[in-house]
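Box 3.1 A note on notation
Throughout this textbook, protein chains are presented in two layers. The first layer is the amino acid sequence; the second is a token string describing backbone geometry. Keep the layers aligned when reading.
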Amino acid sequence: MSAARPLEPWRWLGVPMFQAIIATILFGIPLRAFGLQLPEPVFPMVLAFAWAVIRPSMLAPFGVLLLGLFLDIFWGGPMGLWAVCLLIAYGVALAGRTMMAGQNQLILWGWYGLATATALAAGYLFVMLDTKSTPGVVPMAWQFVATIVLYPFAQRLIDLFEDADVRFR
């Protein structure tokens, strides 16, 4: 087990934000192989979950907000849709933080799935209210699956920084 890294904001907020933005752009490339397109997972969902588990912070919700606004601009959706959805996921994870403490990775993956499902369900409802029609359930289900598969990245981030802040030991 490696030692925890220091909890410097650029290290636990800035670098992962940059990585999520790059991954979103790379997966947004319209590349098709055998008629299939790359999935569009919500990479910032990993950060919304991991940052809430790592420690309560004043900077993390602003990072989640910025990532959500980036997704809105990048995917051309209504401004604020992904920002609200990611903040909802952050809130779910933050609310369950005390129940997640000391749990194994499978339980945390379940919590990640719950936070992701809550955010995507909220997004589904918001889009339905905005467009006055129901969005496709199958594409949303594929996006959910593609997003929950990203949990190991959240676990890696949690493992790196979970014990870095001595105030929360």
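The radius of gyration is 16 Å. Residues 69 and 83 are 6 Å apart (CA to CA).
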